[in-house]
Amino acid sequence: MSPLKERFNIPVYLDNYANAVAIGEFMFGAGKGDAVIKAGQVIFMILL
Description:
Layout: H1 2-8, H2 17-28, H3 35-38
């Protein structure tokens, strides 16, 4: 991860797929601005 941080000069984080997708949906996707999600009352499920 350090080479990415150094190359692009931005914070770099590592997480598992399900957490990353849930955070992305919360911040930028279907959950953006949803009061229920902000209250933490959401279940996110990955089916493989």
